[in-house]
């Protein structure tokens, strides 16, 4: 009877097995030396059927039904590996041998990078052998550049991050006003956003067309995080001192639900820069519902409120007195530190994603996202009094030294003295660090305001503020929607289609933060009486109340709007020894400004202006030629256009609706050719690249002396203005970025690797762009426009600023089989410049205002000397990291640490800008030739030696 039942059962189950095509999927895990990797955890996404590899590295999943699957393989001391595969009507599916590489870097940050390189020469898939080349985890140059050199503000190929793409759950995180990404919106959530997929530089991506500075794609699905708790505690001496986080993931339940929640906090009473503090939180909630093997939906909430202060750039004179950690933005109030530059905000993100496996060959992802909230940045302002900043040029020893020693000058307390005595007093105070001189004196500001006599201002009686704090506010509302469609024609051909839409609305205004003891502040231009006699000077003519109190808006108020649609089809295919990826793009954007204040100088300040519409097109291509299973030749090419961002389109949106003249779509033509080696013992990439950028528009705003501006009132009376806040616009800027990149990783022993990097670049301006000039001191010029054409700025062949153009790195990584590691590297930077100031390189700079001809004593050699590019000093650094991990039953413990800049090099300048206060040749030369120039370049220095210690506990 039992035999009959067994026979019946057998014939009953066989049809079920046939109809449901249940499949066993298996593979073997090995390290780079070919040795088995045991006890690695293999998580099947969307399921609780997680397994552990046995002693020979073998694992399997049984009874998998047809569909698309994803697994994540993790093991302490090894890099995590994510793989995707499809199950069809087969009984057994062999994933082959999967290689896990040792994780020797970035453990101190708790970071991991997706590694999807199958490293299998015998793979039947035409894409499997090269998919790893598309990920930065297998690109040794990109790894070193990001984690060892990136700490020192190195930008690969000199490309601005604004020309890249960062995506979170299918939608772009690029802000339409300036093209930047505010990473603080998910700050502190390292363990949630730790698995990005990266298409480096201008190589094509499956998720977006991108630019020429990489596409970074992050996806946060609740089921993809390790089930259980993870606690992390970090100690550092950087911008913050402490970080604490806790994450919990439920895993996928039998009913198809998964939850992940995380909270984090980073804080410091004072960071590495003097007078700075940090207080930021990060929260995440992920909910995932699996309706079937073909249909899943997710909800993600990310919120990261923060409040932190920032530090100032300074001239070399100030750093020589007070050191590289000096910060002029703070001072003592009642014995407590207080900063004028405090940034705070909360802009939460709500996202819904739908994942639909249409059939075995097609899938569709759809994302909808909404982000809103305010970002506020405070600053000190003043009316009809001198700049109270301790680093204002009239408050520094160099100013008194520039005067006649016997000249009579006023002390801060109002008493009179000679310039010689004032210089000695000021120098002694700066050298000794007298906080009454070297920092903001809040008590003095309060005292000056409270000593003001009460008066009647626009119908209001009280004390008007001479000094006050304001907030510059961005109130954003951003809608995003996107779809990502994939269709596999066969194993070697894949079609992709991405469609995205963004609706960006941002109201930007200034509000009163603190009146510092006064009753109100006037919403009026303090320079109007001298620059614009006879005019109202009101920032918002017609308003009822010109006197502003805390919370009131003043200065400016306007709305930016932008809508953008992009369509990005692509195709990937293999033919013979070639793997090819072609990606195209068509986009349309419409931008506008609506003014909410009626500025007294500009007729176009109030109301909604015109819509500025741009079409964009682009094409990217990648061709990989397989010399064999280990050696490849890779070509990446891109040609595309990009519409100007809002802040590049509008000259001075705070006060008018004027746009920069002759603004066009920026055009990028980028090409690179690489030779790549990928073996268990050697990884190498040698690349030559050439990136040309045309039609770029740049806008800068600063204070300038020596510019003669003629203002005419309604009666024709003229007023000459010599100093003013100005806007400088360059259009049709052409750049060329070219160079060589080499990254090498050699495994000299099974446990020891040597890594090296060389980056030789030359980043220059290719032309002399047209320069325009605007100023609120003038308003509309005699030509009826709000700007003047200053002609060409002669910057051809000047070096671009912002990053070292030469960089080298050499290091080693030792990985002990008992799960501890140590590594170190040497990094060197050279050929670092400041961007050239356009205004002082125009013909206006050398023209005498009286004669209209060049200055008589001007020679070409003298002009070349004065306008020589500002080159920053070269520097080298030593870094080291170490760590140890333990697996104790079901518990995992990791402790690691990193020390950067071990030798405490404080001479490295990470960035800065040339001041353009003296806009005429004679005054500029006189200032430049002083021992301490009054208006020399302002710099940011490296922070010196820093450390990061990390403790992680999973249970």
From TrEMBL:
Main location: membrane
Keyword Manganese included in the entry's annotation: no
GO CC annotation terms, alphabetical: cell outer membrane
Subcellular location per the Swiss-Prot or TrEMBL entry: Cell outer membrane
Keywords: Cell outer membrane, Membrane, Signal
Span of the signal peptide: 1-21
Keyword Cell division tagged: no
Protein name as it appears in the record: Peptidase
